[in-house]
Amino acid sequence: MRRNLPSFTAALFSIFAAFILVVAPHLAAAQALIFFIVIYLAMPRRGSTFEASLPIRGREIVAARVLWILALVWLPIATWLIATAGSGLRVLPVGMVLDSGAVLTLAVLLPCAIQPDQVDEPPVWLTALLWIALAAPSAAITWFLPPAVSMAMFAIAIVVTALWIWSKTPESLEVAPRKAAVTKQRNPVMHRSPTRPEASGSAWKPLMLSLFQGGETRSGNQSYFIFVFYVVMFALGTANSDFLQPLALFYLILPLATARRGTRWLAAFPLSNRARLWCVLLPGVMLPLGCLGLGHVTSPMFFRNRASMSTNAPSGSHERDDMTRVPLEFWRRATGDPVITAPWGETAIADTLSVLRVELQNPYTTNVGSSALFVEWQFQRATTAVYGHPMTTAIYRSRKAEGTLPPNVFSSRQMQTLNVATVIAIALLLAVGSELALSHRFGGSRAGSYLVTVVFMVVALAPVAIDWMYAKYPMSGVTTSIAESALIRLSAFLPTNLAVLTIISALPVIAIYAMLEWQFDRSELVEARRSGSTVGRFLARPVPNFRTS
Amino acid sequence: MPTTPVLEFRDIARSFRRGEPVLSDVSFSLGREEVVALLGRNGSGKTTLIQIAMGMLFPHAGTVRVFGLSPIHEPVAVKKRIGYVAEQQILPSRSTIQDLMAFHRYLFPTWDVELERSLLARFGLSGNSSRMRQLSKGEARQVALICAVAHRPELLILDEPAGGLDPAARREFLETSIQLLNREGTAILFSSHHMGDVERLGGRVVLLDEGRVRVDDDLDALRESYCIAIIPRYAAHAITMIEQLPECLKVHQQYTDWHAVFRGTPQRVQALLHDAFGLNNVQCATVPLEELFIELVGEDRRAEAS
Amino acid sequence: MHIAINPGDDLPIYRQIMRQIMDAIAGGRLTGGERLPSHRELSEQLVIAPLTVKKSYDELEALGYIESQRGRGTFVSARLPKVSRAVRSSQLLDAARALLSQAYLGGLRYSDVLKVLADANHDLTAEPARARRKES
After folding, report:
1. CB A103 within 8 Å of CB A157
2. Cβ-Cβ contacts under 8 Å, B93 against chain A
3. What is the CATH number of the domain that holds C65?
4. What are A342-351's pLDDT values in tens digits?
5. Nearest Cβ partner of C50 from B182, B195, B197?
6. pTM (global) more than 0.80
7. Is B175 in Cβ contact with C49 (below 8 Å)?
């Protein structure tokens, strides 16, 4: 079919989505994002100028393109249906998944219904408006109505839209009449009286605009998509209680790449390398991280105060009392027998869990037959670890009922500072990794650049993959837990003075930033035309100035 | 006293795939008020060379110096004094012309607002508040030219600037460049396929063929001191020896004859061929630049089998 | 005077300028002492490089047709160079042979060639008369 770059990437993402849907169905955020990307990539326009010039009916061009996208959307869903058909292990209700598929189909079809006689799709703001208008009612329909009814409603909507598009699309599609119309409007401006003082432009506008434009295409309709990534980051921030999220950090790659494309044109200007680096970092790393943090901060506070100690706590291997389950961050490495001995000699068998071939145990486990004293003792130890000070079970229960539980250890200023520093450090490392692929040392060989990119992607994906492996345990991500427990241990060694802590944690960040600057000095514009291989062109990501098919 | 050349390439080599060099051993320099036309087939490395001069690409071997500085290590100092227009240039499509000018004004300390105004007026763009994406190709290129020229650069780099422009726009482009040359002593490095423009701008011609400098000579010398000799069929045995002559630049087959490009006047070449190989009255002629270009970089043409 | 150049011509641009100036001098359209445009003026007028103009002026000056006076400009020589009549005649003979052979190959006769010569003479010399009439 179309061997162009966005379709190729879209297909990749579609397969990726199928994989996720089957393996880790509860990572809803990931799925939604991926579907979104699939649609974005596959839908630049109804057809290209090239296609419009071929002896094919306009309807067929549009139909071909739309069907291609729908295939990409339904492939993961179909895969999931088939894969989980026999096992009965459907975490998500079938009806909801099918409804989502139907909503996505509508999302794809509706923009095609606007101005169906033109090759270009409607402007981004209009499409966004459509999708927002679609989101609320479809969510309501999916939630409140039984699956059969909602499916029927969606099916009717889909059929009506499809028929409308089919009937309205003419034999041949028009190419860019809008642009010509706008140009004619502009010309009268030139005849305005010359006595009006020339509007001196604002120097910052070209720069600011381009920071958020994902590169230049003549139709300009892929612009400002970076704001979608910001919204997604914000959503990921609210949805998850952990600030350190491997998935969010992985998705940083997308705004980073977009920002880099959007600021390519600055290469010919007398800007220092540092200025150009910040033109990429600001929209590509800092702002998405800011949105993530904003989401995290605004996620409703009452969740925190109502969440019990055992939220996100994995259950281990033994029957035990519910009260002393703690999140994975507080588990310890198992040494020898998983037996906990109280000072007066009572023993209990600890919960164990195997993560990445390391045996972990919950040092606060209580068994079913444990005495009340033992339970109380363990409980106080557990609350000391989680909240920083001991609480009796009675106090804990009453506070939980009132919703006035204290914030856990991770909410302390020190831990938050460490978390922020870690996130920024990882984000900058990601940037270093992606700059590495553009290093001038690879100028002679695309293979080297490709290799670096693959390695870097694998490393960035590793935490996400690990999380999936252990996704069957209902708990927060494994890698996040590992990272947080490491940070807790680290904080024990660091001074508690906030200012000093900030400075110390800023040091590695500054070091990584210096590495980034060094690498950025050595990366170069890579021209896509030279490479004949598809892979080479994939890496170089051409930014066409004029419309190409 | 030798002055620093404005632009200097020394033994530049660059490849994009292992074993396929795009540029090898490219050396030439450009002084103040000099004009160099970079000619070559598409894909012969012209744009690569220009991007190396702009510091956008790193050479794999050799050095490039602009105003005596390295464009990679001192990009700001170098780019402030260069004006750059390229056919595939990307200018932000949503900014208006005024905003773009203001942006340039901010970045280039030598920006001359009067010159900007007069150029805008000359191209009929003053008061035009459209965005870049709404302009036609010619108008957009004119804006790019104003951006490149209004800060009175010491070096003007033009990478196929007139590609796809109508003749009037092309002429205006040339006029502006020549005015800059006259009034500021700007050096001009340009690559073009339009021989008329190359002839008008004059100066030196550097011809790249498969990444190597084939010819580096004055334009008028090319017209008068290079000629094509048509070696008849009966003398085909001498072809390999003719190729070895130092004055011979290239020999290739054109249907039934062989064409040899020589550096030398027709009379001299005739005499040379007579003395060396006993060939009498070989047809030699000077040719226009476009023909010379085609002879030097064109492919062999065999007669089609009947 | 009006100079027109054609970049694609067989002749290099500087030679085209030289020829046109020499033609103008020959035809009386440029008189001795008349001022020629400066390098820069002519280069901007014709949209060609100033060095090309300079080259043609230098060549003309070497041949003695024009002279440049420091600070004042370039002028047509008051006294045209004296080339020996013999040299000039032999140059003309070659040109005449070429002209006649071209005519005879085209089927023209001697009388036709004479008519062509008269027309050319008219072109070369007629303009100054018209120009002077306009000025007065």
Report:
1. no
2. 213, 216, 218, 220
3. 1.10.10.10
4. 888 888 777 7
5. B182
6. no
7. no
